[in-house]
Amino acid sequence: MARGNRSAITSSKWRCLNPSYYLKRPKRLALLFIGFVFLSFFVWDRQTLLREHQIEVAELRKELTDLHNLKLDLFQLDVNSAQGGTVGKTGLEGKITESSKDAPDDPIDTQRREKVKEAMLHAWGSYEKYAWGQDELQPQSKSGVNSFGGLGATLIDSLDTLYIMGLHEQFDKAKEWVATSLDFNKDYEASVFETTIRVVGGLLSAYDLSGDKVFLEKARDIADRLLPAWDTPTGIPYNIINLAHGRAHNPGWTGGNSILADSGTEQVEFIALSQRTGDPKYQQKVENVIAQLNKTFPEDGLLPIYINPKSGTTSYSPITFGAMGDSFYEYLLKVWIQGNKTSAVKNYRDMWEKSMKGLLTLIRRTTPSSFAYICEKNGGSLSDKMDELACFAPGMIALGSSGYGPDESQKFLSLAEELAWTCYNFYQSTPTKLAGENYFFHSGQDMSVGTSWNILRPETVESLFYLWRLTGNKTYQEWGWNIFQAFEKNSRVESGYVGLKDVNTGVKDNMMQSFFLAETLKYLYLLFSPSSVIPLDQWVFNTEAHPLRIVPRNEMGHVQNSNEKHKPLSRLGGRKGGRSD
């Protein structure tokens, strides 16, 4: 086409944008106006239709939700009728609450949650195949070992994890074993602490979730076998007891002393047992321990790890938020939460706040990166060492921060976030991205791993779970996902999961600890689940990650029998996956 012709067409094309063109041609102006009005009505009509469509979709979703919840209630009615129970309040992931409906499940969270669930299936399937009914699986040799006297520790520790993840076929098989094969009449020297947090706690949690009384009956049986441990001049328990004969004593290596954490970490479970059975003896035994310790409780709230059960006095020994001290401080807070934060449990909160003042005196920061860490204390001197076990503390501090006024609350929440960053870097600082057992801090060097094994511990992911729930900051989910991927890369084997003998080399051990299924995988699963799944205002986790329902406790602190009012949660899986059977 010639240049002149192209210019003529261009001139004709753009002259319609000149207003004078229409003023000289009124008919064209009228047609343009009519077209504009028609187009406006068309757009308005489309917007109206779209709004009506959105309203219809919202109404249909609401009807679908109502039908879904009605189906759940009918299903629960069938379950409870078969069990002779009452209709339960549905919960977990099955019943869609307003909060979870308003905040749709993130597709990435859903995908990650399913990955964690698959990891649980791999761990459980391996245990079921090679170590069924035994305490723990040795994946490398594909054999079982009775680390806790043959009480089926992994099975009991896993009950609530299976239930929460919707793995009900596996849960039902485990329940059948509990009902028919679990026998506590063992001539075995059991740890009162470990048996309480794993077995009593695991059984009570399974009862609270399912409503099946076989779990409550078994929890009462084992608790009765543990009770003679509290028969000391002060009521501070011995830490070892023979399950068959009831003979209690302390380990020889403590010089006859009881251990702080071992003696102060039965309150949540035994109070719950009294609430569910109506028998006050369990609660009385464990609350007396706190009453005895409170008589001489120091202003800084920090106790050495050794206590004389005959005199109630402490012995010269380390002060630590790591091994042998940790969960004593945790349970001061959690009994307060379990007791609905009423005046009946105010002394627990008061003691905990004193301990937090003491904890502040143990905080130091590294150079050059300013990682906050919790020192250990020996006499008047501080030791720049922190156990990975102490990484429960960020979660505990965050959970308790809301009980302060605004300024103090923010101060402790910020400290919790700082400590969580340190604990996350325990993982990130090693070649395997898995944390060692403890760390040392030296000027100018930040942190260095001390004892270099990793036995699949949960404490850091526990704190990440609490911080995510309490702040909504998805960074904690990302950190947790990175830790999970490191476990998948380094600890997953053909027949389960193993720890590492050395986080620097990645050399594997031959043990799948029961708490990997009870705690590590459960907290990871909940980290990617909606907050309506085991909500923190309705449940309290024991130190083995077994959730126990918070039930009313009167102001005088007397036991109320909650058994008649007990309502199990509906047996449901995830909203995406449904039931596994």
Structure commentary:
With 581 residues, this protein is mainly α. It has a single domain, classed as Glycosyltransferase. The protein contains 19 helices and 19 strands. The strands form eight sheets. Strands 3-4-5 form a three-stranded antiparallel β-sheet. Strands 6-7-8 form a three-stranded antiparallel β-sheet. A three-stranded antiparallel β-sheet has the order 13-14-15, with no helix packed on it. A hairpin with a 3-residue loop joins β14 and β15. α5 packs antiparallel against α19, α9 packs across α11 and α13 runs antiparallel to α14. The longest helix is centred in the N-terminal third of the chain and has 58 residues. The N and C termini lie far apart (74 Å). The N terminus and C terminus are likely disordered.
List keywords for this structure.
EC 3.2.1.-; mainly alpha; membrane; Glycosyl_Hydrolase_47; Glycosyltransferase; three-stranded antiparallel β-sheet; disordered C terminus; disulfide bond; 581 residues; 51% helix; 19 helices; single chain
Short description:
This protein has 581 residues and is mainly α. 51% of the residues lie in helices and 9% in strands. It has one domain (108-549): Glycosyltransferase (Alpha/alpha barrel), CATH 1.50.10.
Helix count? Answer: 19
CATH hierarchy: architecture: Alpha/alpha barrel
Q: Which fold name corresponds to the CATH topology?
A: Glycosyltransferase
The spatial strand order of the largest sheet comes to 3-4-5
Low-confidence stretches: 1-17, 60-102, 570-581
CA-based gyration radius: 30 Å
Counting copies of identical and different chains, the oligomeric state is single chain
Query: Count the strands?
Result: 19
Helix content: 40-55%
Q: What's the CATH first level?
A: Mainly Alpha
Main sheet makeup: 3 strands, antiparallel
Number of domains: 1
The structural class is mainly alpha
From the spread of the alpha carbons, the general shape counts as: globular
Strand residues, percent:
5-15%
Overall pLDDT score: 85
Give the termini separation.
74 Å
